[in-house]
Design goal:
- The protein is α+β, with helices and mostly antiparallel strands and about 120 residues long.
- The chain has one domain (about 5-120): 3-Layer(aba) Sandwich (Glutaredoxin).
- The chain has four helices and four strands.
- Strands 2-1-3-4 form a four-stranded mixed β-sheet, sandwiched between helices.
- The longest helix has 16 residues, at about 25-40.
- Mean pLDDT is about 90; it is low at about 1-10.
C-alpha cells in the first residue's frame, strides 16, 4: 500500500528527460507512468530532449534517463538516474516530505523549472 504524501507534494514536479530513440527510456516510460498513478498529487512530465530543445536550453542532457525533481520553484534533484523506479519513488518521498530539504543552487535549473511550469501547467 502506498502511504499518503503530505500536502506539500501537490507542488512537486517530476520530469523525465529522455529521447525517443533511447531504448532504455522507452522501457522506463511504462514504469514511470505507473509511478505517476501512485502519486496523484505530484505532476509528472515526460519530455523528449530533442523535441523540446528550446525549452531546455541552455542545459544539455546527454545521459538517459535524466530526472528533474522540484518542489515548488526549487529544483531538488537533477541528474541521470538508473531506470529503477524504486530509486525515483524514494526521491519523491524524501523531497515531498521534507520541506526543509536543500534546493539545488543552480540558476539554470531554477529557470528551467519556471519554464516547464509555465509551458506545461498541471
Amino acid at each position: 500500500m502506498t502511504q499518503q504524501i503530505p500536502a506539500l507534494a501537490n507542488t512537486a514536479l517530476v520530469v523525465c528527460l529522455c529521447a525517443e530513440w533511447c531504448g532504455v527510456c522507452r522501457e522506463y516510460r511504462a514504469r514511470f507512468a505507473d509511478l505517476q498513478s501512485r502519486f496523484p498529487q505530484v505532476q509528472f512530465l515526460w519530455i523528449d530532449v530533442e523535441d523540446e530543445a528550446d525549452l531546455l536550453h541552455p542545459l544539455d542532457v546527454e545521459d538517459f534517463p535524466t530526472l528533474l525533481l522540484a518542489v515548488g520553484d526549487e529544483p531538488r534533484f537533477f541528474g541521470p538516474l538508473t531506470p529503477q523506479i524504486e530509486t525515483l519513488e524514494r526521491l519523491i518521498r524524501i523531497h515531498s516530505q521534507d520541506a526543509d530539504a536543500p534546493a539545488l543552487r543552480d540558476q539554470a535549473l531554477t529557470e528551467l523549472v519556471a519554464r516547464i511550469r509555465a509551458a506545461k501547467p498541471a
